[in-house]
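Hydroxyproline O-arabinosyltransferase-like domain-containing protein
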Amino acid sequence: MIVRKGMGRAKSLLLLLMVLLFSFATYNLVAMIMDHKADGLESLNRKMMVSGKTNSKFHVAVTATDAAYNQWQCRIMYYWYKKVKDMPGSDMGKFTRILHSGRSDQLMDEIPTFVVDPLPEGLDKGYIVLNRPWAFVQWLEKADIEEEYILMAEPDHIFVKPLPNLAQGTLPAAFPFFYIKPDQNEKIIRKFYPEENGPVTDVDPIGNSPVIIKKSLMEEIASTWVNVSLRMKDDQETDKAFGWVLEMYAYAVASALHGVKHNLRKDFMLQPPWDLNVENKFIIHYTYGCDYNMKGELTYGKIGEWRFDKRSYLLGPPPKNLPLPPPGVPESVVRLVKMVNEATANIPEWDSLNKS
């Protein structure tokens, strides 16, 4: 009897200890979730860094054509990828330029490249970006991708510093774009995301790039992304409303159709000239023209006395040693030009290799 009572007390104490441990773990988990909700941009990433744990490596994938305009951007991007890839804090794996021109080009030996077919002639209706989702479908089906995650990137991305895996398990990480507004375009969104699927707020304000996503999830979404893109392009109202960002909306809708939400990371990248400082950002996206007068004042919409605009170099690469902006221009623009200059100074045959 004494032994049994002793064993009973021991079991009770063990059970109580397990309950206390479970309660403590639950409290910590809830606290972590609440912290993350309060500061979704930084909190979980900080916890991971403090604990010394890192997520899986991600494969850097950029879709491109063989036009000179895409080629020189890819060369700059790849230069900075190589420079930061193995630095502390990086989860960057291998790199692939997914070339959707259907043929090899002169950069095959310089940049790891996987050639895929473009959409059948006429299907993109002159909107070449529709080839992006189709390129990913082919690459995912045919390529040997070692990494568990994928970063979908674009040629006009420059890595400012080592990029960790911002995804959290099956929760992808994405940059929120201020001009992607599903809730303000509900009538159109509902053509492709019916009410029975859920509220329109399920559609994230994102495009496909930059996004870090588990490869298995991307394999599920990719074909839907293609189909939604083509349907949107065929719908005149949608095509007119979404214009050059149609394919971005298509990715957001396709993800929602698969029940995939994204962790929105404003620190994923910056976009000069609107973002003034680099600060803690990981990628510079130089999609906008940067025009200033010599007083350092922005003259957006009007060609400035000093300017950097990627569209000035449609037929060939920018020259080496671009002049730096005048005093007063934001740090983000200065940093962009310095990074372009460093790359062009170190990439072989810069002035002659990639010209149309």
